[in-house]
Amino acid sequence: MSEYYQPFRARVAGGDLRGGQWRAAQGQSTVLAIHGITASHLCWPWLVERLPGSRVIAPDLRGRARSNALPAPYGLRHHAEDLARLLDFLEVDRTVVVGHSMGAFVAVWLAHLYPDRVDSLVLVDGGLPIPRDVGIDPLLMLGPAAKRLSQTFETVEAYQDFWQNHPAFVADWSSRVADFARYDLDGTAPALHPSARLEAVAANALELNGADGYAEALADLSLPIEFLRAPRGLLDEPTALYDRAVVADWATRLPRLTVREVDDVNHYTIVMSDRGADQVARAVNLYAPASYPRGPRS
Fold it and tell me: Would the keyword Transcription be found if you checked this record's keyword annotation (predicted)?
């Protein structure tokens, strides 16, 4: 981790929201980066490296990583409320918000509920409603990502081996992915386990189809939105999470939505690889504003 990195603990409903930030003093703009449904804030170092002029704030969402002791409710709106409190704690008025996968849905709710806090959105292979057949278990959408949460591992090295052999990372293994895996572990050997709580993941998976007013909240946004699409899925399969036709339909409904295809990445490596982060950073830099330091809100 670089010398610019600082962990944080911010008081939210039920306890402390944890995570990390980079360049808290040096950054000339502020970016809030929100991870995906089973991930943590350590999916973002690739992007941080490419935003040398920005302060980057990245939480572990409620129910995940070092924030996994925070209690329910875990709904997307509740994540957005946590992040508004985080911005208060870190004395940030407005920010560009980038969200990956489920984190993009949280970003949309934050922009809808707190429009004065968000300058623009970068939605990375997420944030557009994902159709789901009635009666289908939403965890089936996540496949092995959900199954992993019920597994145990005897050693840290065994869990790192799991990720090194994961289809998404066979060609993109790096020390940063190893750090991501190490940070994700909870418990004690020989029964180490992934840190995300299955009940939190299940609650959020239910909401990814645009339920509970989400589709309407998205349609009401008037700020600039960049949508970056990965051409391959969670297992590096050729079927993407988002069909091009679904994305094109939303582009016609959201006048300020710009769609960008990111070549040669899957759902993970669109943020957790150099070539993916290059494209995300370009989208973020289109709108990165000057930061707005201030005193605490009343």
Answer: no
- Domain assignment present for residue 21? The answer is yes
Contact 280, 270 (CB under 8 A): yes
In 27-139, alpha helices (H): 45-49, 76-89, 102-113
Average of per-residue pLDDT values in the chain: 92
Q: How many domains does the structure of the chain reveal? A: 1
Q: How far apart are CA 271 and CA 230, in angstroms?
A: 10
Give the C-alpha separation, 276 to 257, whole Å: 20
Whole-structure pTM value? 0.94
Residues in contact with 209: Cβ distance below 8 Å, sequence separation at least 6, in sequence order: 129, 130, 131, 132, 138
How many whole angstroms separate alpha carbon 11 and alpha carbon 46? 27
- pLDDT over 70 at 123, yes or no: yes
Local confidence band at 146 (pLDDT 50, 70, 90 cut-offs): confident
Q: Which domain holds residue 14?
A: 5-131+203-285
| 225-229/118-124 β-pairing | parallel
* Within a domain: 141: no
Of the candidates 117, 115, 286, 139, the one whose C-alpha atom is nearest the C-alpha of residue 208 is: 139
pLDDT computed for residue 290 by the predictor:
44
Beta bridge partners of 95: 118
For 79-119, the pLDDT digits (tens) are 999 999 999 999 999 999 999 999 999 999 999 999 999 99
The CATH number of whichever domain residue 37 belongs to comes to: 3.40.50.1820
